């Protein structure tokens, strides 16, 4: 613009319109911008090396942006995929965490349960020679994981037989700094851990492990390896004979006692089972089956109602065994017990364990049967050996429980449907589960002592509240034996 524009306003300038004044101001601004742009190279030459580097990096970024816009269509698509790949990974992580959060929200009522897990992959990845696990424990663990051994007595006997073979085959090295009891316990620990990975230990197995460890730890210090093995094998055979087999025989005598029967110095007026009785049992129990087989020999006209439930249908095994001894039986599912309870004279239940607060732990569904029997005024008798007594306390099955395979709940019960569509695999079952459906397969049930009339044990017919007394007497006997063994060690 000319220098006339810089002169002070004249009368002509005052007469200019607003539009002309705006045009002049724009022209002045453009002139000032042009001067700044011309002076910019001179300013860049006076800058420090650090500022030059920052400007160079800024220029490189600008060039990269320009070059990225000039790429071909294929290179554009490749760069887009490369640039967005980290974003996709982050999104996938977010989606996975959202799925986990949604699953946790489904299980917020039962989040304290241990997840169903059967880990016996060690048998697939390594050979028997390279592992420290004895073959008998591997066999027992796989049988427990696949539910081939379900009864608590059978699981305990299986563990004791596996322990017996383990002790016989064990070789004590001469170059170890450990004593014989410490070495046996360290080797036994890995085998017990494998059993726990295959399936959580039952109360009977846990009590047997405690007693066997006490026998191992209280071995005399100057005992030889062969003598220690003989002593431990003798303790195992004694436990099986006295705590399981003789206990079952004693319980059988208490239930079937007559006028002339005197057990432990006590006479019993009559048997708890009489002729023409209708007895209701539930699931599978080796102890209850033995009682009924013995009762058939004395009372040929008894009738047994076998109640069963899904998903395992263990009552079918009981039914097959009783029919071999010509016992008249009826088979019914648990959802129909209210229709036949008025024909029942008594209910006999097997027990997984007896808790310190008097609650009876048994197969899932036992409390429902005891509750219906209570409503119909039918006496409920629980049979449990004293080696299954535990100092644990539990008031319902939701405080702590063992979880079964949730996919077992999706198996077909109808044979016709099974032929049309066979059992689904775990992946197919999982794909058919709705997002709003959560599968919870509980293994055990807890019966209130108010629903149980009496508990028949190898120490007699006791109320449920007598568990702490029995445990106290057992602990007293254990301390006495420990004191005797310590005295022999000092001698």
Description:
The chain has 491 residues and is an alpha/beta fold. Helices cover 53% and strands 10% of the residues. The strands form three sheets. A seven-stranded mixed beta sheet has the order 5-4-3-6-9-11-12, sandwiched between helices. It has a three-stranded antiparallel beta sheet with strand order 7-8-10, with helices on one face. A hairpin with a 5-residue loop joins strand 7 and strand 8. The longest helix has 34 residues. It is extended. It starts with 10 loop residues before the first helix and ends with a helix. The N terminus is likely disordered.
Lay out the secondary structure:
Layout: H1 11-14, H2 18-45, H3 49-69, H4 73-106, H5 122-125, H6 135-145, H7 152-169, H8 180-198, H9 203-217, H10 225-255, E1 262-263, E2 266-267, E3 278-282, H11 286-298, E4 303-308, H12 315-324, E5 328-333, H13 337-340, E6 346-350, E7 353-354, E8 360-363, H14 366-375, E9 380-383, H15 415-420, H16 426-432, E10 444-447, E11 454-457, E12 460-462, H17 467-490
Parallel strand pairs: 3-4, 3-6, 4-5, 6-9, 9-11
Antiparallel strand pairs: 1-2, 7-8, 8-10, 11-12
Helix pairs in contact: 6-7, 6-8, 7-9, 7-10, 9-10, 10-11
Primary descriptors:
disordered N terminus, 491 residues, single chain, 17 helices, alpha/beta, 53% helix, seven-stranded mixed beta sheet
């Amino acid at each position: 613009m000319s220098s006339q524009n810089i002169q002070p306003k004249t009368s002509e300038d005052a007469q200019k319109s607003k539009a002309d004044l705006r045009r002049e101001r724009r022209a002045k601004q453009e002139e000032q911008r042009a001067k700044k742009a011309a002076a910019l190279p001179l300013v860049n030459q006076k800058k420090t090396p650090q500022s030059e580097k920052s400007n160079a990096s800024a220029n490189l970024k600008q060039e990269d942006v320009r070059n990225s816009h000039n790429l071909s269509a294929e290179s554009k698509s490749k760069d887009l995929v490369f640039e967005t790949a980290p974003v996709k990974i982050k999104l996938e992580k977010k989606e996975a965490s959202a799925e986990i959060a949604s699953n946790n929200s489904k299980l917020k009522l039962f989040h304290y349960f241990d997840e169903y897990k059967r880990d016996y992959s060690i048998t697939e990845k390594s050979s028997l020679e390279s592992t420290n696990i004895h073959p008998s424990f591997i066999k027992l663990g796989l049988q427990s994981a696949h539910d081939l051994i379900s009864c608590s007595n059978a699981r305990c006997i299986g563990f004791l037989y596996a322990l017996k073979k383990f002790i016989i085959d064990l070789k004590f090295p001469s170059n170890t700094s450990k004593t014989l009891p410490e070495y046996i316990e360290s080797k036994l620990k890995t085998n017990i851990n494998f059993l726990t990975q295959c399936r959580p230990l039952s109360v009977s197995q846990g009590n047997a492990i405690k007693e066997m460890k006490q026998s191992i730890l209280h071995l005399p210090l100057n005992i030889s390896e062969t003598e220690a093995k003989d002593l431990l094998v003798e303790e195992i055979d004694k436990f099986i004979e006295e705590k399981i087999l003789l206990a079952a025989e004693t319980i059988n005598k208490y239930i079937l006692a007559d006028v002339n029967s005197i057990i432990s110095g006590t006479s019993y007026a009559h048997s708890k089972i009489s002729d023409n009785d209708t007895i209701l049992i539930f699931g599978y129990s080796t102890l209850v089956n033995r009682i009924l087989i013995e009762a058939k020999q004395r009372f040929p006209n008894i009738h047994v109602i076998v109640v069963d439930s899904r998903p395992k249908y263990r009552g079918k095994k009981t039914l097959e065994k009783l029919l071999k001894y010509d016992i008249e039986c009826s088979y019914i599912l648990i959802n129909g017990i209210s229709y036949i309870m008025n024909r029942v004279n008594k209910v006999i239940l097997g027990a997984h364990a007896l808790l310190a607060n008097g609650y009876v732990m048994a197969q899932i569904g036992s409390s429902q049967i005891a509750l219906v029997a209570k409503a119909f005024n039918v006496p409920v008798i629980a049979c449990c050996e004293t080696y299954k007594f535990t100092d644990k306390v539990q008031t319902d099955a939701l405080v702590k429980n063992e979880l079964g395979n949730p996919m077992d709940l999706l198996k077909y019960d109808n044979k016709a449907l099974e032929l049309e569509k066979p059992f689904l695999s775990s992946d197919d079952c999982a794909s058919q589960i709705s997002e709003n459906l959560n599968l919870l397969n509980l293994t055990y049930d807890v019966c209130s002592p108010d629903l149980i009339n009496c508990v028949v044990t190898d120490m007699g017919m006791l109320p449920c509240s007598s568990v702490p007394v029995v445990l106290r007497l057992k602990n007293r006997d254990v301390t006495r034996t420990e004191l005797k063994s310590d005295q022999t060690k000092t001698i």
